[in-house]
Amino acid sequence: MESLSGKDLLDIFANYNYTDLFEDSGINENDPSDLAEACRRESASLVVRYVVAFIYCLVCLMSLVGNSLVVLVVCYSKANRSVTDVYLLNLAIADLLLALTLPIWAIYRAHEWIFGLAMCKLTSVLKEANFYSGILLLAFISIDRYLAIVYATRAATQKRHWVKFACKGIWLFSFLCSLPVIASRDVFQAPNSSQMVCYENIGGNQTDKWRVVLRILPQTFGFIVPLLIMLFCYGVTMYRLFQTKNIQKKRAMKVILAVVLVFLFCWLPYHLSLLTDTLLRTHVIADTCGRRNTIDAALVGTEILGLSHSCMNPIIYAFIGQKFRNNFLKILVTHGIISKEILIRYRKRSSFSSTSANTSMTL
After folding, report:
1. Where are the transmembrane segments (predicted)?
2. pLDDT by residue (tens digit) across 225-242?
3. What is the pLDDT of residues 62-90, one digit of tens each?
4. pTM as predicted
5. What is the mean predicted confidence (pLDDT) over 194-212?
6. Using CA atoms, how far apart are residues 241 and 262, in angstroms rounded to an integer?
7. Which of 12, 70, 76, 136 could connect to 92 by a Cys-Cys bridge, CB 3.0–4.6 Å?
8. Do the Cβ atoms of 96 and 170 come closer than 8 Å?
9. Phi and psi at residue 114, in whole multiples of 5°?
């Protein structure tokens, strides 16, 4: 038997392609299930995994600090709290709950899942509930602003008893919509790998079909419907504001619109990636290995962007919301951390007016 030289080996591997891989391994490249198995063999590099973990930890720190300040400001001025403040308080609480899970997701992204089945289900539910409650709270804020500005129903929008029921309903609906995650999420060893993962594990040959069904719920009731409500309410509200000269209301709307736009910037790419993945799994678009890997990478990247939203709102309040800064400075003055002269100088410089109709003390 002739021995192979180094040049012969290079020639063999130079002509080695993916078709040879499918033929030699028994994988049918036209079979979506077999193709999925082949595509799962690619994994992120160690450097990428640690970068993602660092981003999660940074977002966690910023979210804990920022949203804690929001909760402090809203709770401290309980007597002057508006309907919008109640919604923003619940939004901050939702972001705080999500932030507490980010170190766990960071370790998972850098290594593997080591926290057991119960923690897998709990953290997954909190992530889903955060998204649902976030967009639903923003939708209710848009309705509140619509009623307060378009119909000038200040008395109706300032009643808090129905706001408490609305917030409880939002939380209940969010957790109900997250229940499929409890049923489908599992800890198991990834195919063609020794690592444990926390992922959907529906089982059987209908996994992709059920995954698509479970995605219809968040994409329809948890994203599209609230988005349409916000677009309608803010569209009519902005049109009415352009016809008035109420500067205070325009300032409040500027902050709220910034909150909505940032939410869409963070979460819309993720849901577009989910939609593309859904179309891929239902074979509306052709399923190829390269396309599947691209979509999987997009899902991971856009999920990072979506989770980073938990620290964005406090930054918006701090840089745009004059009332948030004013109330925060008032707390510092009350506890003797800064002098009262600093607060007076800030109010003069920002031309702050404490008498505002139908606006939030946070905004």
Report:
1. 50-75, 87-108, 131-153, 165-183, 221-242, 254-272
2. 888 998 898 888 888 877
3. 999 999 999 999 888 777 788 888 998 99
4. 0.78
5. 70
6. 21
7. 70
8. no
9. -125, 10
Three-state secondary structure along the chain? CCCCCHHHHHHHHHCCCHHHHHHHHCCCCCCHHHHHHHHCCCCCCHHHHHHHHHHHHHHHHHHHHHHHHHHHHHHHCCCCCCHHHHHHHHHHHHHHHHHHHHHHHHHHHHCCCCCHHHHHHHHHHHHHHHHHHHHHHHHHHHHHHHHHHHCCCHHHHCCCHHHHHHHHHHHHHHHHHCHHHHHHEEEEECCCCCCEEEEECCCCCCHHHHHHHHHHHHHHHHHHHHHHHHHHHHHHHHHHHCCCCCHHHHHHHHHHHHHHHHHHHHHHHHHHHHHHHHHHHCCCCCCCHHHHHHHHHHHHHHHHHHHHHHHHHHHHHHHHCHHHHHHHHHHHHHCCCCCHHHHHHHHHHHCCCCCCCCCCCCC
Q: What is the 3-state secondary structure (H, E, C) of 166-224?
A: HHHHHHHHHHHHCHHHHHHEEEEECCCCCCEEEEECCCCCCHHHHHHHHHHHHHHHHHH
Quick one: pLDDT at residue 127?
A: 86
pLDDT at 23 over 50: no
Residue 96: pLDDT over 70: yes
Q: How far out from the chain centre does Cα 132 lie?
A: 9
φ and ψ of 138, to 5 deg: -65, -35
**Res 209: pLDDT:** 66
pLDDT for 205 equals: 53
Task: Using the CB atoms, write b or e for 258-280: b if 16+ within 10 Å.
Answer: bbbeebbebbebbbebbebbbeb
